[in-house]
Design brief:
With 280 residues, the protein is of the alpha+beta class. The chain has eleven helices and ten strands.
Length: 280
């Protein structure tokens, strides 16, 4: 069933009590003629929970060499590769799950889900009931926030250093793993364990991914004469340095990425920035 708002891309901020737990809520409508497959891309990102609604049809996502048939209620772990999507229509609603959100809502070793997709029921037996509510015209943020409140009632213990680690990783001024370890008074091994368990990846991957996405977001549609300075500001020595990371995180060149990204990608980036701020 459809909601009254027919916008192709919608983002909503979460209530203040969920600050630091989720990135916000979103809905993408994939309205295309039935004979035309929808193709687009998701950037490497936090873990994501999504539900297919509104006369949903099967859809898939390729992460690196692996292709996943997406469950209608899915949990996609954190990714360090782009997610190439193919669908036949319908809509998806969901939320991005920050490191603290993972620790408080589910817990466990998030690296086990890195670059993987599993049914959300793997983590929450109430996933199908939640899908029914979202597909029944209820306002997605209201449904999600009731669900989050129920999960938070479990009051899982969270490492107090996690808040600081997330802030340091997000800070563009943090360029060295040694800085993270010194700030948190951790050995390199302890830092790696904390990072993999709650972010899904090593600190080195997280810092490199953040730098690349920050550079990509400001240069993707920039004029060629501006890109050199923007890349330097993001922490790259030169364009070849940036292009190596493009192949690592996107699986293709920047030119090919521009050609392959689909009709919603630019709109998603713009709308998200307006409502939630830049993703990196």
């Amino acid at each position: 069933m459809a909601n009254a708002d027919n916008s192709p891309v919608t983002f909503w901020r979460a209530s203040e009590r969920f600050e630091g737990l989720v990135t916000g809520f979103h809905r993408f409508r994939l309205g295309l003629p039935s004979a035309v497959p929808f193709r687009d891309v998701f950037f490497p990102s936090f873990a994501t929970i999504r539900f297919a609604i509104e006369d949903a049809r099967p859809w898939s996502m390729r992460l690196g060499a692996r292709r996943f048939d997406m469950p209608f209620a899915s949990f996609a772990g954190p990714t360090d590769v782009a997610g190439w999507v193919e669908a036949q229509g319908g809509a998806v609603v969901g939320l991005g799950l920050r490191a603290q959100g993972w620790a408080r809502l589910f817990g466990g070793d998030l690296s086990a889900y890195a670059n993987r997709v599993v049914p959300l029921s793997t983590l929450d037996i109430g996933a199908d009931a939640l899908l029914d509510k979202l597909d029944g015209c209820e306002h997605p943020p209201a449904v999600f926030e009731r669900w989050l409140d129920c999960l938070l009632a479990a009051r899982r213990t969270v490492d107090p250093r996690l808040t600081r680690l997330e802030a340091l990783i997000a800070d563009a001024a943090t360029a060295r793993i040694e800085t993270l370890a010194e700030e948190l008074d951790l050995t390199a091994r302890q830092l790696g364990t904390l990072s993999r368990r709650n972010f899904g990846f090593t600190p080195k991957v997280l810092l490199r991914r953040r730098r690349f996405l920050r550079a990509l977001s400001v240069t993707l549609d920039a004029a060629p004469e501006e890109s050199g300075g923007l890349l330097a500001e993001a922490g790259y020595w030169d364009r070849s340095h940036f292009l190596r990371d493009a192949h690592l995180f996107l699986g293709c060149s920047i030119r090919e990425f521009r050609q392959r990204r689909g009709p919603l990608h630019a709109l998603v980036m713009q709308t998200r920035a307006e409502v939630l701020g830049a993703p990196v």
